[in-house]
């Protein structure tokens, strides 16, 4: 129930005195507004106080005294912009101060204070602020007598002071801020209005000096839609947004308020696309005399998105640049469908793999189960750890088709990926939301019998290529993996089992046919753009263009070629427990000595695979009968793989002289001829050099080798291929790498071995098909040792001086029976720790090691590290020759 409003002469006099005291300081700024005394005779139990204030210094905003001349309600702004409030009720004196200051910023603000049930709340521009409140019992002695001498006069401007005998809600206060001219109903509840408003029509109190407020919008409609205005223009604005916002145009528009829009205005406009009634656009603009309160909101249909950049916000003007575009997903979908529609007229439909069928006439997309299955299959990468979703896979059959697909993708602003066999360890050959240019069908082989140069399609696999060349008595420095295609292998350098004699495969590249950034095909060679040829020889794939043919110099196969395996500390067949006989350190040191020797030309290439094994956590007591080995004495399963030029007797002599006679007799020896009359060369490539399978070789005794080695303690096996399909099969994995210095690791041996005994690995991993190991791949040998400086400068491969590559690997789910278990596989609780082990090895401090090998890609390694001293030169080549200023030829580890 409202308290009757009866005049009281004493209070009238007091309030009038207060108002006069304030008026003396603020008459000029407040335009000498007349003062009206407060006709009240009761205490304030429930109220809302509001005033528009603008100040730089602060002071007393308002003070009300009761019948006995005691201040019942005081509001002040401190010099730091804090708000101080005191309310004296019948029982309590409540003092509060705002936690934050800053009200004295020289801009207009609506100050609102509510009081009810001894609780004070304060709002600035409709937003509640935090108060620190202190209440004490009120006695007559505690009451502060009013004194005009102690009051700090307000230094600033105040308008629209209202003291309302009701407690407004937060929503009502916000409405008062947003719509100050629509609050006529509050007059009925007013205890005090300053200055006096006699009717509800006298609600347009404003300072005399009105600043014209305006908003300038620079709108770039980057869509194919014209937008028509749906709401009528308002009479409250002198200038407004237009009736039509045209498509693909950039225009400037002004919104200007009329004189009664103070201290801010709200402008709304709704638009609808002329071409589609479902596509809508709405502007909601607040322009305030307080600059940081001004804002622009846009509401758009899902098909649209926008950028809004406010370049200017002052008391008088708000300037913003707005770009309206189709949603990126929508735009990409339209571009993709147009791309598909265009390439379909040039490329056979069965070579265009998508997850559906686009019908241009009806403008819709249809998917069938068969199409989706074919698409999912085509998306699969060799590294099954990664699952990516390209827009389409286009199987090109010629350089012309490559050019067509590439240029069409660029025309429709679509990203590209290039895939030959998809062996990239980080899956960069089939990125999500890209057009995959698949080169696997471009697998031609053309040999010039005079020069021995072979022209090879980028999709030609090592199995097909080496088998073909071996039939001609020729070979090139190939990979150990039969399923590898040539393109990524040779451009990444191309390490293989011929490396000690013929170097990396890239050293044999003499020409390349390449599609450059503008869609032009060129053949680069030593005579035409030699710098670009240099970059293709070990400078990484894709960065410089799409190579559609490689011209590689071959060499003659030796009359006798053997591949061999030597194993130490083998796993027992049934238990998979190590039979520990030989310290890893001694084997590692011996292997280094062998590859660095200059008197072993018959060892064409080799690597050493060392299996990692679990270690106890620090502080954990080992089980009974367990011997904790120091790194110097640690024993790991080790296998040396190699190619040997010579007969079995010479290989047997090498094994005895280099290992058996120095106390490093292998537990197992395997050797076999490469290829032959009944077996193609490509079928004999040794996947196990870099892979592992749970199915080990079956022990089939080879009596001829037993006689050659004359050692009954060595197990001698014939070559068996029953497990090769497991090693060819794609599987989830992760790798990382570094390289040993020219003279090997030396002091780094212990750190390397220590990294291979880790608490991050769990006992029983092997039995579940989770393999963790390191492969050391020899670079050092006759080729790079005798290579002259001029010849060294002919390729971008940066590690010609290094002894070998160190590649840490983790593989799992290689076998079909493991893959069939899907997420029910018991290996998954262990995989994350194996991946953590890879990270730990990547960051391990190993003396005399550095760099990283791009073919063993790890995206967590900075790109520059892969290319060493050649990185800047590769950047220059890309910029100078590739004609790709927007970097369409890009992946995460390509040259930028």
Automatic annotation (TrEMBL):
FAD-binding PCMH-type domain location: 386-557
GO molecular function: FAD binding; oxidoreductase activity
Cofactor: FAD
Keyword Oxidoreductase annotated: yes
InterPro entries for this protein: BBE, ConA-like_dom_sf, FAD-bd_PCMH, FAD-bd_PCMH-like_sf, FAD-bd_PCMH_sub2, FAD-linked_Oxidoreductase, Oxid_FAD_bind_N
UniProt xrefs under Pfam families: BBE (PF08031), FAD_binding_4 (PF01565), Laminin_G_3 (PF13385)
Keywords: FAD, Flavoprotein, Oxidoreductase
Entry coiled-coil feature ranges: none
Keyword Oxidoreductase in annotation: yes
Family under the similarity heading: Belongs to the oxygen-dependent FAD-linked oxidoreductase family.
Protein name, as recorded: FAD-linked oxidase
Lineage: Bacteria, Pseudomonadati, Pseudomonadota, Gammaproteobacteria, Alteromonadales
């Amino acid at each position: 129930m409202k308290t009757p409003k009866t005049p009281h002469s004493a209070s009238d006099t007091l309030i009038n005195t207060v108002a006069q005291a304030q008026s003396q300081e603020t008459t000029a700024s407040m335009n000498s507004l007349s003062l009206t005394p407060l006709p009240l005779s009761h205490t304030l139990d429930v109220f809302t106080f509001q005033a528009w204030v603008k100040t730089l210094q602060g002071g007393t905003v308002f003070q009300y005294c009761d019948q006995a001349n005691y201040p019942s309600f005081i509001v002040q702004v401190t010099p730091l912009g804090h708000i101080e409030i005191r309310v004296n009720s019948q029982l309590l004196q409540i003092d509060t101060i705002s936690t934050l200051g800053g009200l004295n910023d020289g801009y207009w603000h609506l100050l609102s204070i509510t009081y009810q049930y001894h609780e004070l709340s304060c709002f600035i521009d409709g937003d509640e602020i935090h108060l620190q409140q202190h209440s004490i019992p009120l006695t007559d002695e505690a009451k502060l007598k009013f004194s005009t001498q102690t009051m700090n006069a307000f230094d600033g401007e105040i308008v629209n002071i209202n003291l309302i005998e009701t407690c407004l809600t937060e929503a009502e206060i916000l409405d008062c801020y947003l719509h100050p001219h629509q609050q006529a109903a509050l007059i009925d509840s007013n205890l005090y209005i300053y200055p006096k408003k006699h009717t509800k029509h006298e609600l347009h109190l404003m300072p005399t000096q009105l600043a014209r407020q305006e908003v300038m919008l620079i709108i770039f409609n980057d869509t194919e839609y014209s937008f028509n205005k749906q709401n009528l223009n308002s009479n409250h604005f002198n200038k407004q947004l237009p009736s039509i916002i045209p498509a693909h145009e950039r225009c400037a528009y002004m919104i200007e308020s009329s004189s009664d829009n103070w201290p801010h205005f709200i402008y709304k406009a709704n638009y609808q696309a002329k071409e589609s009634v479902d596509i809508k656009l709405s502007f909601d603009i607040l322009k305030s005399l307080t600059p940081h309160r001004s804002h622009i909101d846009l509401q758009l249909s899902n098909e649209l998105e926008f950028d809004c950049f406010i370049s200017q916000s002052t008391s008088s003007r708000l300037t913003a640049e707005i770009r309206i575009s189709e949603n990126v997903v929508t735009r990409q979908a339209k571009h993709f469908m147009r791309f598909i529609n265009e390439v379909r007229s040039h490329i056979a439909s069965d070579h265009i793999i998508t997850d559906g069928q686009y019908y241009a006439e009806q403008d819709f997309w249809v998917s069938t189960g068969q199409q989706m299955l074919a698409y999912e299959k085509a998306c699969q990468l060799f590294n099954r750890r990664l699952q990516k979703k390209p827009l389409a896979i286009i199987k090109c059959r010629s350089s012309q088709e490559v050019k067509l697909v590439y240029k069409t993708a660029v025309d429709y602003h679509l990203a590209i990926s290039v895939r030959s066999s998809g062996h990239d360890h980080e899956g960069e050959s089939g990125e999500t939301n890209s057009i995959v240019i698949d080169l696997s069908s471009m697998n031609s082989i053309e040999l010039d019998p005079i020069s021995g140069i072979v022209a090879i399609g980028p999709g030609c696999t090592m199995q097909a290529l080496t088998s073909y060349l071996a039939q001609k008595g020729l070979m090139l420095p190939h990979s150990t993996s039969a399923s590898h295609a040539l393109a990524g292998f040779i451009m990444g350098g191309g390490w293989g089992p011929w490396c000690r004699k013929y170097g990396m495969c890239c050293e044999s590249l003499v020409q390349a046919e390449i599609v450059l950034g503008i869609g032009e095909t060129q053949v680069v060679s030593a005579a035409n753009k030699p710098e670009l040829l240099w970059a293709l020889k070990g400078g990484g794939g894709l960065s410089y263009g799409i190579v559609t043919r490689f011209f590689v110099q071959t060499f003659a196969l030796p009359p006798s070629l053997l591949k061999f395996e030597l194993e130490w500390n083998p796993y027992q067949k049934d238990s998979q427990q190590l039979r520990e006989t030989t310290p890893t350190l001694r084997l590692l040191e011996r292997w280094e000595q062998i590859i660095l020797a200059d008197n072993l030309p018959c060892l064409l290439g080799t690597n050493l695979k060392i299996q990692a094994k679990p270690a106890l956590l620090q502080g954990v007591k080992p089980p009974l009968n367990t011997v904790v080995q120091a790194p110097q004495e640690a024993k790991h399963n080790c296998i040396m793989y190699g190619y040997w030029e010579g007969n079995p007797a010479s290989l047997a002599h090498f094994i005895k002289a280099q290992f058996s006679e120095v106390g490093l007799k292998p537990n197992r020896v395997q050797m076999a001829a490469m290829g032959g009359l009944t077996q193609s060369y490509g079928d004999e490539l040794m996947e196990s050099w870099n892979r592992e399978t749970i199915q080990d070789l079956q022990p089939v005794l080879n009596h001829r080798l037993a006689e050659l080695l004359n050692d009954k303690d060595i197990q001698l096996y014939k070559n068996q291929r029953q497990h090769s399909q497991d090693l060819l099969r794609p599987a989830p994995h992760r790798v990382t790498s570094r390289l040993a210095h020219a003279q090997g690791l030396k002091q780094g041996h212990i750190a390397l071995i220590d990294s291979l005994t880790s608490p991050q690995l769990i006992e029983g991993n092997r039995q579940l098909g989770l393999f963790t190991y390191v492969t050391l791949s020899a670079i050092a040998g006759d080729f790079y040792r005798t290579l002259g400086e001029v010849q060294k400068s002919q390729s971008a491969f940066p590690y010609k001086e290094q002894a070998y590559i160190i590649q840490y690997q983790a593989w799992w789910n290689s076998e079909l029976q493991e893959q069939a278990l899907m997420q029910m596989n018991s290996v998954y609780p262990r995989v994350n720790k194996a991946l953590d082990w890879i990270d730990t090895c990547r960051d391990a401090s190993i003396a005399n090691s550095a760099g990283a090998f791009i073919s063993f890609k790890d995206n967590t390694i900075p790109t520059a590290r892969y290319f060493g001293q050649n990185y800047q030169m590769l950047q220059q080549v890309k910029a100078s020759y590739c004609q790709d200023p927007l970097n369409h030829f890009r992946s995460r580890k390509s040259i930028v």
